[in-house]
Amino acid sequence: QKEVEQNSGPLSVPEGAIASLNCTYSDRVSQSFFWYRQYSGKSPELIMSIYSNGDKEDGRFTAQLNKASQYVSLLIRDSQPSDSATYLCAVNKANSGYSTLTFGKGTMLLVSP
Amino acid sequence: GAGVSQSPSNKVTEKGKDVELRCDPISGHTALYWYRQSLGQGLEFLIYFQGNSAPDKSGLPSDRFSAERTGGSVSTLTIQRTQQEDSAVYLCASSSSWGDYNEQFFGPGTRLTVL
Hints:
Chain A is 0% helix and 56% strand. Chain A contains no helices and eleven strands. Chain A has strands spanning 4-5, 11-14, 19-25, 33-38, 45-50, 54-58, 61-66, 71-76, 85-94, 99-103, 107-112. Chain A starts with a strand and ends with a strand. With 115 residues, chain B is mainly β. Chain B has strands at residues 5-7, 10-13, 19-24, 31-37, 43-50, 53-56, 65-69, 75-79, 88-95, 105-106, 110-114. In chain B, a hairpin with a 2-residue loop joins β5 (43-50) and β6. Classes of the chains: A mainly beta (113), B mainly beta (115). At the A-B interface, β5, β9 and β10 of A face β5 and β10 of B.
């Protein structure tokens, strides 16, 4: 089982719709979860972090975490063509005294006008 | 500067040559990470620095790869005797902490092409 799994997509949604991006992870002790947005040819940009079970909202973005199911998702409301990008899910990996991030391969989102 | 900076932005080299890639983290960020992203692939962790020491070098793909960090700030990733499979975008990220809740911020990357 891969450590962090995402559907590669593309996920196609019309402008104004809700886009739902999903991620599962294998390490039960992971404590922090991040969503990055990566435009083509650019570097990843942090858009959301979530640490507790439940929902966390920031503008049009909502991150959802369910540690029991080892599942994290990102909802984008009122999707815009400018949201078209690859979304990377990242999960912390605890080591001895420090933490690193393991990234999924990303889901490509296409928002059509 | 406000963000992580990397140089050069692009590097084209011939097989067998050595290259140095530089990362300047966000001021005050003690943790620094190097990643590699090949075309169509995910982010591959290379090495982690805490201050000037590197507790985790587990991602370095071979002994041709090395990295150092001086003064708790700038880091250099060196690839010796480059091979075509080293062609990728090399990304640096920094974070203000190294615990479970560290948020990492990425630089623009260096695109390395080995001919």
